[in-house]
Write a structure and sequence with these properties.
GMP Synthetase, Chain A, domain 3; five-stranded parallel beta sheet; 27 strands
Length: 571
Amino acid sequence: MKQFPLYEVRKIRDLRDMIDQSAALYAEKTAFLVKPVKGGDYAPVTYAQYHRDVRALGTAFLSLGLAGGRIAVIGENRYEWCVAYLAAVNGVAVVVPLDKELPATEIQNLLSRSRTDAVVFAGGRKDDLLAIRSALPSLRLLIGMDETEDQDGVLSYQRLLEQGAKDFDAGNRAVLDLPIDVDAMSALLFTSGTTSDSKAVMLSQRNLCVNLEAMCSMLYIGDDTFLSVLPMHHTYECTCGFLCQIYRGNTVAFCEGLRHIAKNLKESRATKMLVVPLMLESMLKKIWQGAAADPAKLKKLKTGMKISNFLRLFGFDLRRKLFKPVLDMFGGKLALFISGGAPIDPKVMKGLRDFGFQCLQGYGLTECAPILALNRDVSYKDESAGLPLPGVEIRIDEKDEKGIGEICGRGPNVFLGYYENEEATREALVDGWFHTGDLGYLDKDGFVIITGRKKNVIVTKNGKKIFPEEVESLLSRSPYILESLVYGLEEDDGETTVAAEIFPDFEKLKEDNGGVAPDEAAVRATLTDEIKKVNHMLVKYKGVRRFEVRSEEFVKTTTKKIKRYLVKKKA
């Protein structure tokens, strides 16, 4: 396969150096698009303003005695979250991003485990946090992003920002002189726990900065607007959708929620977007189902697709003209989806690319800050998770007869260890190699191919291995299946068979039944037919033999990954 040179990127020592450089290079360029009024118009915040606000809030944090402490940030994706993150991490304290969707008991648990001193929060968590603080003596301060005044034991973010700016302008430059140890813990992130309880991952500034440099050397990111949709407390969105954009001088537009993606894409004129597979699968289904409602429109779309694919064989690309109505559904300017979080069906990638959207996927974990491998814009394979990043080594441990084994990574982006969990650290980090728990192989060109999760593998009585993710990917192609989870079921004779739990597309079933919701027997009959089609594409022992129908979506993490362990316990 043809090799392409890496893109040139600027070197950064730490995240304070990053924002200092970006503020100098892009001072009056828009760093963020925010909505001062919910549902209103986007307003720009420049790099110069962001730089001032980070310094001001950092100065305020120091005045509160938070130097060397732990500062948690809880809230939706918004400008104040981004200010608080960098103000904390740039020498003041260890930043602890937390999921705003967690129940109060779990937030209390994580604040206790991380020994957090202060929480900067948004949303309706004020009462929860006041109750938590009364039970946690170590939690000294609560700072509300939406509080206009200091009251009820909660400090106002805005007042702190204003006072910090005054102090900084008056000559208090202590925040600029704080030492930053690039190899010390700077961020403490809790994994989402799709298969087990969350672990606290310790990341250093070196981990984050080398990851930013490496990913940008592989994929050109520049002069773009990213719509921020995925939760920013997660390292994927935080590193790739926030820090990377500030590093490259791009604009981050905050999405108002999943229901507003199309509207916000148009308003922000976003050109790129980070997604998870479930989002892309839904988008592609929406396009084709929308066309199917009008036979003439569907015929026109299929004809256009044939013409487009034929012309592309000869170097003529008319996709953005032929499929303008489709592109306009997503704002008209969107050109690239970057998918992560889980492997995606290659047919979904190709399906969206055929309409004019470039789709690429990468592979990462919180413990790798997060990227280990990435497909390039100039060199990609849809069936793969990409090539190892520069400076990263990937090897396959304990290969089976097909060359499949555990994916292990080593490099300067690999985490320091799990906080206060030496046993888990020893299991995951062996001689500098991080054992991901994912199974896969490297193809002849060095691309990483992921086959499944080590903990999820189904092993039959005669030793054959089945990767649930492979079967789930095929099931997801059905227009009648929205979500599925495949697992092994032990029969009375000791044999393990493949079973599935399926959440159907009830709206589609109703639509194809003349607008009348089908009864339970009819739903099962349709799904049985769909499963038979999938089984024909699989070797016999991989086929789904039993299934249950769900009436509700699976419980998922905030990055839209099914919490498998909850279903397995039930099964």
